[in-house]
């Protein structure tokens, strides 16, 4: 091995060996000293490489023990993606793209839900609605219940990717929105739409359910969709101005 290998290159090499089965799940990686000799680098570089490997969800770390190989799960993979994506979604344009992606995903899932939701899943929606009702004046309580209502929509298809996407992006999006002064009234309107969505599901009326959900999701952040179509360094300023104008109406 070349003496100037970087931590990233070493991590890539070890990752390939994990994927190839050279290091099996549950097996400990070689001692740091052996890795230093193998790759011709110092201990600090090896430790950095092991940190990268852990960040990829390929190892578990216990204090005083060598890293142990683990098989990455969809949850750990999405968590890693979610952390990196925070930089993209930190701006107004990135948030707008995320909001729009959520709209496409949830309306599609709702059409499926209208046909395939079980009584038990509908009961979970109703439980979330009642929790929302009890927390209309409590920001955190309402958000937790609101997240749960929308998570049920992701659970109905039985596809773990939809659930992981919800847990990684939608939950963070919903829980990090700014709190507006009239939040109890907004919460009351949102929960009324939750009830209307479930009513449409019970009636097997997919068009009505999607119409209500679309209104529900776009009411508070429709401005983001308009700004998402624009580009340039002043997008954030335009968004702030547009929101202020919208709130003043």
Automatic annotation (TrEMBL):
GO molecular function: DNA binding; DNA-binding transcription factor activity
PROSITE patterns: HTH_GNTR
PANTHER family the record matches: HTH-TYPE TRANSCRIPTIONAL REPRESSOR NANR, TRANSCRIPTIONAL REGULATOR, GNTR FAMILY
Record has Transcription as a keyword: yes
Protein's UniProt name: L-lactate dehydrogenase operon regulatory protein
Domain HTH gntR-type: 4-73
KW Plastid (keyword) present: no
Native source species: Thalassovita autumnalis
Classification via InterPro entries: GntR_C, TF_FadR/GntR_C, Tscrpt_reg_HTH_GntR, WH-like_DNA-bd_sf, WH_DNA-bd_sf
Keywords assigned: DNA-binding, Transcription, Transcription regulation
Pfam short name (any one): GntR
Entry-linked CDD domains: WHTH_GntR (cd07377)
Domain of life: Bacteria
């Amino acid at each position: 091995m070349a003496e100037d290998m970087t931590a990233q290159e070493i991590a890539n090499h070890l990752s390939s060996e994990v994927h190839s089965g050279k290091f099996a799940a549950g097996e400990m990686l070689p001692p740091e000293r052996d890795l230093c000799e193998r790759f011709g680098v110092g201990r600090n570089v090896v430790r950095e490489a092991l940190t990268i490997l852990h960040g990829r969800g390929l190892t578990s770390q216990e204090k005083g023990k060598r890293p142990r190989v683990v098989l990455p799960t969809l949850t750990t993979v999405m968590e890693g993606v979610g952390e990196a994506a925070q930089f993209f979604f930190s701006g107004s344009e990135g948030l707008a793209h995320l909001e729009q992606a959520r709209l496409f995903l949830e309306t599609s899932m709702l059409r499926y839900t209208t046909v395939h939701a079980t009584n038990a899943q509908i009961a979970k929606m109703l439980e979330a609605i009642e929790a929302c009702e009890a927390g209309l004046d409590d920001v955190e309580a309402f958000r937790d219940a609101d997240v749960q209502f929308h998570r049920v929509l992701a659970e109905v298809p039985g596809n773990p990717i939809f659930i992981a996407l919800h847990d990684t992006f939608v939950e963070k999006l919903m829980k990090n929105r700014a709190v507006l002064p009239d939040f109890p009234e907004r919460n009351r309107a949102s929960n009324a739409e939750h009830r209307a969505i479930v009513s449409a599901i019970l009636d097997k009326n997919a068009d009505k359910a999607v119409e209500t959900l679309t209104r529900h999701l776009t009411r508070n952040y429709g401005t983001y969709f308009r700004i998402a179509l624009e580009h340039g360094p002043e997008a954030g300023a335009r968004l702030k101005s547009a929101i202020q104008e919208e709130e003043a109406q």
